[in-house]
Every structure is written in structure tokens, then in C-alpha cells.
UniProtKB/TrEMBL annotation:
<protein>
    <submittedName>
        <fullName>Uncharacterized protein</fullName>
    </submittedName>
</protein>
Length: 38
């Protein structure tokens, strides 16, 4: 299950890089850190 979420998240991050640049990526990574800590 965690593997599935990992792949989905990577795909979403890639889309964000293409569309919006690096600023949103930093926010997404901070949210990811919170998810994995929990």
C-alpha cells in the first residue's frame, strides 16, 4: 500500500515540477516528511 502511495506521489511531484516549478515542490516535500513521520 505504501509503495502505491509512493509511486503516486512521485508522479504528482513530477507534474508539479513541469507545471509550476520548484516552489511548490518544497511545500510538497515538507508535507511528505510529515506523512512519513506519522
Amino acid at each position: 500500500m505504501l509503495n502505491l502511495w509512493f509511486h503516486v506521489t512521485v508522479n504528482l511531484l513530477t507534474v508539479n515540477i513541469i507545471r509550476n516549478g520548484k516552489e511548490l515542490i518544497i511545500v510538497d516535500l515538507e508535507m511528505l516528511d510529515g506523512l512519513f513521520d506519522g
